[in-house]
Design a protein that fits this description.
Number of strands of chain B: 8
Largest sheet of chain B: 5 strands, mixed, barrel
Order of helices and strands of chain B: HEHEEEHEEEEHHHHHHHHHHHHH
Strand content of chain A: 35-45%
Shape of chain A: rod-shaped
Number of domains of chain A: 2
Oligomer: heterodimer
Distance between the termini of chain A: 34 Å
Radius of gyration of chain B: 25 Å
Helix content of chain B: 40-55%
Number of strands of chain A: 18
Strand order of the largest sheet of chain B: 2-3-4-6-5
Shape of chain B: elongated
Helix content of chain A: under 10%
Number of helices of chain A: 1
CATH class of the domain at 217-373 in chain B: Mainly Alpha
């Protein structure tokens, strides 16, 4: 048998991507001698935590193995292919899965004209605490914004987005409030006014917003959820509160 | 009813200019490979329409391609974040405003697309003007950094990054990009540049140099970090150091000993966690006494990483960089110490937390039975 010894579980709406395939192919090799017939179609069996994977066909020469659930331990499944009463050596197999998204390297800077921009970098880990890079991900907001400042106005609902896979540096999030038109809406429109980051940072809260993080897909709301938190907007910076990750322990 | 409509319209026009968006960074080594032209250039003219940004760049240095110094090249970028600067237009994400780019100098990665050139940004997702180029000083390269036109593109790129990291007008931006691992794929070719930065009187620049060296596995850099007064450094610098320690991979005895020092309780939890993670991934013979001691650590994650480090040594895992690990582990052949009961004792984190003693006692017993390992 030849093929990879692992596959990724990315949830029902996760998408297979480079380095994170959610299906893999195992090929049976008959190794027949000149006088052997070897006409049987190979049959496939799994032992161990078999509920973590799926077989597409059986019997068949090339098996498609899909990840259905996360492995509890490394190589907790064994795959065996049998032909004509002879069985292969077991292939130890693992279903990896994204698991935890931790924060934080967080910096707040002045925006171009007025207001602020807070940039956060986060790190994604799998269930074995190995950092993961290059996996598609997205954020979604589970509720409309919630005012913290009496008489809040001009502070709207942030827009959720996603990033395709293939990146190799780091992943992050931006939170901010500023006037991108070259005007001064931080003081003419917003209540409370937004400002460049102060020293020390302000303790005046404007609003907050409930955020959910999914990986394995760039489409908002799709993929495997790994984190929830609250985006807390102050008048001169933003930060996360109430982080929960992993969300599916 | 009419009043209500006006009020509603007013709210729509003035609200939603808070923004939030996810992004991911690319590394410059990959961008250098993808790009057909890489130039240091200043934006002479900029305009935008229908989510397309158009720039007229004046080239001052060419790193890759055949652009002539002093010539003008036209480039474009299509992105939903390209918006015109119309007052009153609501803004719900980062923007790329053409007028903000005029006069800016940077290092641009450009790719041929049909008959034109398009910008390859440093970031994907919710990007702004600052994410389109690498900020570099507008003048000639600083002393100590060479502008050798015959040098390889990668060498030139490293020189530009080093010079920008030392310039007061661009050092902050370069340091932030370093934190985002934008320079992570330059490899050992960047070691001399990082070495130059460690001599900088600017803390952020010095930290970038040291972190770059640590990330590339230089034991002496780890020792320098150990011997510095980390507690006196700004939190973001300490965080940068911690992140680089997480990626340190070298079995050198001096480096492993330095990681052992960083396990001390006087260090931030993030530093201790990253030192443990590095030891787990190095999992050499010399790391075993340190990992064994960490089985009793106060932090559950550190105890977990200690278990996995010992397991990886016993099973015979290959040592690999963070981004290469899954590929390196795929199809590896277990070492001579491997026994079939080891895999069930290589638990996922959540399983470990449910019954730590089962795994800790198994690996303690294994270590006791293999004192010479």
């Amino acid at each position: 048998m030849t093929g990879y010894d692992a596959v990724w579980f990315l949830g029902a709406t996760g998408q297979s991507q480079s380095g994170y395939a959610n299906i893999t192919y195992e090929t049976a090799h008959t190794n027949c001698g000149a006088s052997d017939t070897c006409t049987d179609t190979p049959s496939w069996t799994a032992t161990g935590n078999t509920s973590e994977i799926s077989f597409l066909c059986n019997p068949c020469a090339v098996q498609t193995v899909g990840g259905v659930a996360r492995s509890n331990t490394f190589h907790d499944i064994q795959l065996v292919v049998s032909i004509g009463g002879f069985s292969s050596d077991p292939l130890p197999f693992t279903v990896y899965a994204p698991y935890e998204l931790t924060c934080c390297n967080m910096t707040s800077n002045s925006a171009f004209f007025d207001g602020f921009e807070t940039t956060v970098t986060l790190t994604l880990y799998d269930r074995f605490n190995d950092p993961l890079v290059g996996l598609a991900y997205n954020e979604s907001f589970t509720a409309t914004l919630i005012p913290d400042y009496a008489g809040l106005s001009g502070w709207g609902q942030p827009t959720a987005g996603g990033v395709a896979g293939g990146w190799v540096g780091s992943m992050g999030d931006k939170m901010g409030a500023f006037d991108g038109t070259g005007g001064s809406r931080c003081t003419t429109v917003a209540n409370p006014h937004c400002t460049h980051p102060q020293s020390p940072l302000s303790t005046t809260m404007a609003m907050h917003n409930n955020q959910s993080w999914q990986v394995g897909n760039s489409i908002v709301g799709y993929g495997l959820q790994v984190r929830t938190d609250t985006q807390q907007f102050y008048v001169d910076h933003a930060l996360y509160t109430y982080p929960v990750s992993p969300t599916q322990p | 009813m009419k009043t209500l409509k006006i009020v509603t319209l007013g709210l729509f026009l003035t609200a939603s200019w808070v923004f939030c968006g996810v992004f991911a960074s690319y590394s410059v080594g990959g961008l250098l490979t993808q790009a057909d032209q890489v130039v240091v250039a200043t934006v002479r003219n900029s305009s935008s329409s229908a989510q397309t940004l158009s720039l007229d760049l004046i080239v001052s240095r060419t790193l890759k391609g055949n652009a002539t110094v002093g010539s003008s090249i036209a480039v474009t970028l299509s992105s939903p974040n390209v918006k015109t600067s119309t007052p009153g237009v609501v803004q719900t994400s980062s923007t790329i405003t053409a007028s903000h780019l005029a006069g800016r100098t940077g290092l641009w990665f450009l790719q041929q697309s049909g008959t034109g050139l398009v910008v390859l940004p440093l970031m994907a997702g919710d990007i702004s003007e600052n994410d389109l180029y690498l900020p570099v000083p507008s003048g000639t390269l600083a002393p100590g950094f060479s502008d050798d036109i015959s040098a390889a593109s990668k060498t030139k790129l490293i020189q530009e990054i080093g010079a920008a990291a030392q310039d007061t007008t661009t050092a902050g931006a370069i340091s932030r990009l370093a934190t985002m691992r934008v320079f992570a794929d330059l490899g050992s070719d960047a070691l001399p540049m990082f070495g130059q930065l460690t001599a900088s009187p600017q803390t952020a620049t010095m930290a970038m140099g040291l972190a770059g060296q640590i990330r590339l596995g230089l034991p002496s850099a780890l020792n320098t970090m150990v011997n510095s007064n980390m507690g006196a450094l700004p939190p973001d610098v300490q965080s940068q150091f911690a992140n680089s320690v997480c990626e340190y991979r070298n079995t050198d005895a001096g480096g492993v000993a330095a990681l052992g020092v960083l396990l001390g309780l006087q260090y931030l939890d993030s530093v201790r966690a990253c030192a443990t993670h590095a030891l787990r991934e190095i999992h050499s013979q010399q790391t075993l006494p340190l990992l064994e001691k960490l089985l009793e650590d106060k932090s559950p994650t550190i105890r977990y990483d200690a278990v996995i480090g010992i397991a990886q040594f016993a099973i015979g895992f290959p040592v690999a960089r963070m981004e290469d690990k899954k590929a390196a582990v795929a199809g590896f052949t277990p070492g001579p110490n491997f026994t079939s009961d080891m895999y069930p004792h290589y638990p996922a984190m959540d399983l470990f937390f449910k019954n730590e003693q089962e795994y800790i006692s198994y690996w303690k017993t294994w270590l006791a039975a293999h004192p010479a390992q």
